[in-house]
Design a protein that fits this description.
The chain is of the alpha/beta class. The protein contains 17 helices and 22 strands. Strand 17 and strand 18 form a beta hairpin.
């Protein structure tokens, strides 16, 4: 918890930074389903630059010159391609037809156009190199267009999640001792804040660090940022960042490249990006102001937090309740926040809900298990092991129902690539069935499912880098993207990929409809009923209000049957998907028969109308 002196300092800093007044009312239409809980949502994750080009006039972001100046090169997977907010608006029918209830865009803030890495240059098309945290990147549009997008989504009952960045900014600060991105991490022990350039250096920053745990750090006394390296801002970039306080090197750690281990995970530069000293109350107040304004101005419905695990827990302990309070004052009901914690251990994920106070995180443990059992033919007990640890999260299984689950996203390999590499002899029909099976798990299991754009069109993301999973939905000009063998179609990304007749699009649309139809699949508790020590059945129940929905998936190449435990009151059954027995074999026992790489969804109680 934050100490009283620190809380008082935060309040003062917020005033000094000019925190805007809270909004009095929301702008959502009266029909907007504000009562939807986070677990009721089905997210659709979009990288706007790669989705649809609605306005070619902004392809170069209003800049002149070659790609090193404009960031635009639609033939390279590492540069802007021309997608924008207008394109997202133009495709809302497509998104809603898939069954999504909420849209998550990668960050829309004004980014550093091009960054230089050893041997190459890369554009900030993805949005994670922000410089102006209060404006929209001109490659995507402007604030008026972002408001038009949010309003258009809200008018359809779609919620909008803002992807936010706190851990870092674009790479502006340089170090005099070493070339950009060539600076090894320098620890606090060897390079304390109290000495310049190491323990033998001249004394600096007297009185900055307290001598014991009861004395808070006085960030006002951190006047010299050259404790590890000598940071400087090139003259041309002195005012590159907005708000203005972000231009001061004292608000950054300046310790060199993170190794993503130990203290460097929170204090080191993430791939050269300027790592914000979020421990400073003034930085906390600054970010509360920044993201509070986005709530006030646009009435977004939630935040996804990038690189959340690389920020100190005390920051989140104050930031999260401040944002929840801001959203409530703005009339935004059920504001949902989840953080990116890229780790496959449920205990590590849970720590960030217990210690940091994050309401939810991306469930990369579920993602890893799903890829293992669907693509790599691993035991289905891997899935059960993930769900067995739901009690670890702050709030237990109720919080687990708000974890954001995924098959893939913009930072990991697409499932299709792993399917092909792990099963080189598999037929196209088998690959399609396995992909459908993955989506059936995603959309029936506990958690808030996030669909990744292009998965519903069979994108496979051939290659080993994150850039390979960021294909164009509009007609692509990138050779490696066009060469992909898609799943479920003979088409390629050389043509636009918005086909509502694609078998994956159709199947996902049916699954999302089923999830919206059945409250137990969204809000019900979950219990594992059957699992195997190899490829085969994984069966679980979702229970709510006396109803039971049973889901059985088969990861084996042969049909599988089993008697599984159910509630003793679940005597009559009907099929929601696939073929289900009409009655229980005995009170508490039910027979499931599942085709190879198939699934069934059965519901107890009065007869239901099957969807096929």
């Amino acid at each position: 918890m934050l100490r009283p002196k620190l809380i008082a300092s935060l309040a003062l800093s917020a005033l000094l930074l000019g925190t805007s007044a809270l909004a009095a009312s929301a702008s959502k239409p009266k029909s907007f389903p504000a009562d939807r809980l986070p677990e009721d949502e089905i997210l659709y994750l979009i990288m706007p630059d790669r989705f649809e080009n609605g306005d070619a006039a902004n392809d170069r972001g209003g800049l002149a010159g070659d790609r090193s100046k404009t960031g635009y090169d639609p033939t390279s997977k590492m540069f802007y391609h021309g997608g924008d907010l207008k394109g997202v608006i133009d495709r809302l029918d497509y998104i809603q037809g898939l069954g999504a209830t909420a849209i998550w865009l990668t960050p829309v803030f004004t980014n550093q156009t091009v960054q230089y890495e050893p041997g190459r240059e890369i554009a900030g098309y993805h949005g994670y190199w922000p410089l102006n945290f209060l404006d929209v990147d001109p490659h995507l549009g402007d604030r008026a267009l972002y408001k038009a997008f949010v309003d258009a989504a809200h008018a359809r009952g779609l919620k909008v999640y803002l992807d936010i960045v706190v851990n870092h900014t674009g790479d502006i600060i340089q170090y005099r001792e070493c070339a950009p991105r060539g600076c090894a991490y320098r620890s606090q022990g060897e390079y304390p804040y109290s000495r310049r350039g190491g323990v033998q250096g001249e004394p600096i920053n007297a009185g900055f660090k307290g001598l014991d745990d009861q004395t808070p750090t006085n960030f006002q006394r951190l006047t010299r940022p050259d404790y590890a390296y000598t940071p400087y801002v090139p003259d041309a970039d002195r005012n590159a960042k907005t708000p203005a306080w972000l231009n001061d090197p004292r608000f950054y750690h300046n310790r060199g490249e993170s190794t993503f281990e130990g203290e460097s995970s929170q204090l080191g530069d993430f791939a050269g990006l300027d790592d914000v000293m979020t421990e400073d109350p003034r930085a906390l107040a600054g970010f509360i102001d920044i993201y509070g304004r986005w709530i006030d101005d646009f009435h977004v419905d939630g935040f996804r937090i990038d690189t959340a695990r690389h920020v100190d827990p005390q920051f989140w302990q104050a930031f999260v309740p401040a944002m929840q309070k801001r959203a409530k004052a703005a009339g935004v009901t059920n504001f949902h926040i989840f953080g990116e914690v890229m780790n496959t251990d449920p205990a590590v994920l849970a720590r960030h809900t217990r210690i940091d106070g994050l309401p939810a995180v991306n469930d990369f443990a579920f993602h890893a298990a799903l890829v293992d059992v669907i693509a790599r033919n691993k035991p289905t007990t891997e899935l059960g092991a993930v769900f067995d640890k739901d009690a670890l999260y702050e709030g237990g299984p109720a919080t687990a129902r708000r974890l954001v689950t995924l098959i893939g996203n913009h930072d990991v390999l697409r499932l299709g690539q792993t399917l092909r590499s792990a099963n080189p002899e598999a037929s196209e029909a088998e690959l399609l069935r396995r992909t459908i099976l993955a989506n059936a798990l995603l959309l029936t299991a506990r958690g808030l499912p996030a669909l990744y754009y292009g998965d519903e069109q069979g994108f496979t993301g051939v290659g080993g880098q994150d850039h390979d999973s960021r294909e164009d939905m509009f007609a692509s000009r990138v050779d490696s993207y066009k060469a992909e063998r898609l799943i479920g179609t003979q088409a390629t990304t050389a043509a636009a990929s918005f086909n509502p007749s694609h078998p994956l699009y159709r199947e996902i649309a049916e699954l999302t409809r089923l999830r919206r139809q059945e409250p137990a699949l969204r809000r019900g508790d979950q219990v594992t009923r059957y699992e195997t020590k190899g490829p085969g059945l994984f069966v679980f129940s979702r229970r709510l209000g006396g109803e039971e929905v049973l889901v059985a998936v088969n990861t084996a190449a042969e049909p599988q049957a089993a008697q599984v435990q159910v509630e003793t009151t679940s005597l009559s059954w009907s099929a929601l998907r696939g073929v289900c027995e009409a009655g229980a074999a005995a009170p508490g026992a039910y027979a499931v028969n599942v085709p190879a790489f198939g699934y069934v969804v059965c519901k107890s109680g009065p007869a239901a109308t099957p969807t096929r």
